[in-house]
Amino acid sequence: MKTTLRALGFGAFGLMMASTSAMATECIAPANPGGGWDFTCRQVARIMQEIGAIDAPMVVTNMAGAGGGVAYSHVVTERNEDPDLIVAASSATTTRLAQNAFAGATADQVRFLGAIGGDPGVIVVAKDSPLKNLQDMVDAIKADPGSVAFAGGSAVGGFDHMKPLQIMKAAGFDDITKIKYIGVDGGADAITQTVGGFTQAMTGDMSEIVGFIKSGDVRPLAILTEERVPGFEDIPTAREQGFDVVAVNWRGLYVPKGISDDQYNAWAAKLQQVAESDQWKQVMTENGLAPFIKVGGDFQGWVDGVIAETVTLSKEIGVIQ
């Protein structure tokens, strides 16, 4: 572990802070309870305490609104120098920032801390849906674009919205503006919309719907990974159904920009400990997460590149000008 941390550039002082800090800590989940950001905060908070990275329970605060924008604004304007705060983030966060969806906020107003898992994208329908596979869904939309409405935990134009758009583009359907999408505050709300029959499909991430798959309330049409996910081998990929789409939502955190490098490195060391723990490996297996570990400066640089790529894609599909 020391070799890994040293390679990421963490100093001895950062390591000392990571193991001895007794300050009250908080993780903000920018959505209602039950979704992916809530999942990230609660699992990271639990494991950090179990492995001794923090000395007291971490407070988890749900702060829904504007697809993560309310929490982002709160951190930037009111908590910019808070060294005891971390915030759940994902591909949806960088997508929204790339599309200027946070009312002028930019990605350089916070520091991205790290990602410790990849949450495979999924398309699911209610258990009694007439749509049995991805081809059924594509055929239904081509016949009547308004017949299939998607619910997702990101706002219109966000990461969840892009998944069905990518699938339909791969299917040769170019008029993607006709595809119906309803953005709600988190994956739990999106599942409720679909199970309740208010929408015909849900576009989200594996961690958001594992319980619903196991209970039989929903039927997955596809998982948006290169290969089938261990533990969920009965869910076919979009690729094997003839649609070349891969969409994996990284699960990670950002911190206030105004904290010091030592404080940033201390949080990075703690997150690296979580990533290497047996507890986190079990969480990944139980929730269908794929390994995806980038922590510290390496992750910040990667995020910058992803945002640039998202700007280009968003312009191509007409989400931004």
Explain the layout of strands and helices:
Layout: H1 2-7, H2 12-20, E1 26-29, H3 36-50, E2 59-62, H4 69-78, E3 85-90, H5 91-98, E4 110-126, H6 134-143, E5 149-152, H7 159-170, E6 180-183, H8 187-195, E7 201-205, H9 206-215, E8 218-223, E9 248-256, H10 261-276, H11 278-287, E10 294-295, H12 297-316
Parallel strand pairs: 1-2, 1-3, 5-6, 5-7
Antiparallel strand pairs: 3-9, 4-7, 4-8, 4-9, 4-10
Structure in words:
The protein is an alpha/beta fold and 321 residues long. The chain has two domains: 2-119 and 248-316, D-Maltodextrin-Binding Protein, domain 2 (3-Layer(aba) Sandwich); 121-241, 3-Layer(aba) Sandwich (D-Maltodextrin-Binding Protein, domain 2). The protein is built from twelve helices and ten strands. Helix 2 crosses helix 10 (261-276) and helix 5 crosses helix 12. Residues 1-22 have low confidence and may be disordered.
Descriptors for this entry?
single chain; about 325 residues; alpha/beta; D-Maltodextrin-Binding Protein, domain 2; 10-stranded mixed sheet; about 40% helix; globular
